[in-house]
Amino acid sequence: MDYIKELKDYITNIKPEDKIALIYHGFCGDGVCSAIITLKSIERMINRKPDLIIHQPSVKFTKEYLKKLVDNKITCTIFVDLMLNKSIDIIEEAKKTIKILIMDHHDFKEDFNSNNLLFIHAALYNKSIPDNFYPASKLTYDLFSKIIS
Predict the structure, then answer these.
(1) Nearest Cα to Cα of residue 117 among 70, 84, 73
(2) Strand duo 99-104 + 117-121: pairing
(3) Which of 3, 50, 91, 118 has CB atoms 3.0–4.6 Å from 20's, for a disulfide?
(4) In whole angstroms, what is the distance from residue 133 CA to residue 41 CA?
(5) Tens digits of per-residue pLDDT, 58-94?
């Protein structure tokens, strides 16, 4: 899969009427840095900020957060630096109505890529660097730096 093309398509296909959420692991430098890189990249690419930013204290996605997305009528959600393996059922439910982008480096069991979900994992993007040495902030930087000049 050409992750650079898929990422560019995901961001540039966000419509003006879409509502965007950015959810990141907020209690570590990696989560904060990857969120800032993603936020600034979105601003440059489509000239707007996410409508909702969620500073997630843990690395999980919960039903409460899904409810928050639904209540805010979010149509596009970007997750950075969150371990979503334990939240597969909630992600599956969310992708029925929300276009999802996940950029992460935590252990994963399967490639989540499917209709309405773009999953870019460090180990899938660059197999030469062990994912435990390839933080989300480096991953987001590597991806967006190839798109934004």
Answers:
(1) 84
(2) parallel
(3) 50
(4) 23
(5) 767 888 889 999 999 999 999 999 888 778 889 899 9
Q: Which long-range contacts (CB under 8 A, 24 or more apart) does 53-57 make?
A: 53/21, 53/22, 53/23, 53/24, 54/21, 54/22, 54/23, 54/24, 55/24, 55/26, 56/23, 56/24, 56/25, 56/26, 56/31, 56/82, 57/26, 57/27
pLDDT given at position 59: 66
| Contacts of residue 136, Cβ cutoff 8 Å, sequence gap at least 6 | 25, 30, 31, 33, 34, 80, 81, 103, 104, 105, 122
* pLDDT at 104 (0 to 100): 92
Residue 30 has phi, psi (to 5 degrees) of -65, -45
Please, which pLDDT band fits residue 99 given cuts at 50, 70 and 90? Answer: very high
